[in-house]
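Lecture notes, unit on protein representations.

Consider one protein chain, 319 amino acids long.
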Amino acid sequence: MGNFNDLRRKIKPAFLERLEKQFSLHTVEAIIKGFACKRLPVIRVNTLKTDIQVVMRYFKGLNVLFERISFLPNALVIKNRDERFFEKLEIYEKGEIYFQGLSSQLPAIFLNPKSEEKVLDMAAAPGSKTAQVGMMMENFGEILANEIDPIRIEKLKYNLDKQGIKIANVNLGNGVSLGENFTEYFDKVLLDAPCSAEGRIYLNDPRSYRFWSEKNINQNAKLQKKLFESGIKALKKGGEMVYSTCTLAPEENEMIVDYVLKNFSNVLKIEKIDLDFKYKLPIVDSFMGIPFSPLVKNCLKAMPSEISEGFFVAKFRRV
């Protein structure tokens, strides 16, 4: 992992200062160590094509060491192999297993899509969460998988086809307009928002943090608000919406939730997310002099670690 002071020096001073404003020194140290961790591969077993018991027996025969995750019934954390090992296997080629990080699998778990429901994935590429949603729905119902980038949409189509997802309609378009085009149409809405990706920083790879800037954070926050408002419009009364990011920035997490709670309290109620996860971070109750609604505490935030990226998740119900 390297000397801790050496790790600190890799982080931009402005970023480090922001972390120290949000968290205790002990927590900041844990976050920085998390940025230095090489994450273990996490595999999601595709239950449309196989069964986790079958996959576990198969892995044992190959001397693959793995660990199950209590809150992710179809996931395996791999202890002694890298991704290249699995990419050579027939079960990977057939789409029976898929590399999907712990933090990436959680939004769909909290959304809890059911067969026959109509689900919107507002920013779907590369398709990991869309495919997981389709799997959970057992290929019954309807998914609109939206993506604004014509290049990324090809990867989305490829992943959905490989994993056998039959109920997803892929749409090339701006998620900001979906609310007007599909007003109160969907039972469930997933907004895994474009973000500054602080949670994905890996200090041994400068490409993962060279991009970081407060300007980028603020630009993302403006887009996230517009997408959120569109998602609310697209959601049926009684429907559920999950908002998630892979960043630690309050402007893209707690501040977005606070904005929604203060401006859409007549139509949207927040639901408490509870998870027995040892890498949880405290929810920030204010930032840059702006106090947040106490209800923001109902969200989940986690630091980067050896088994997950840093992430944030919030869940709402339309009334």
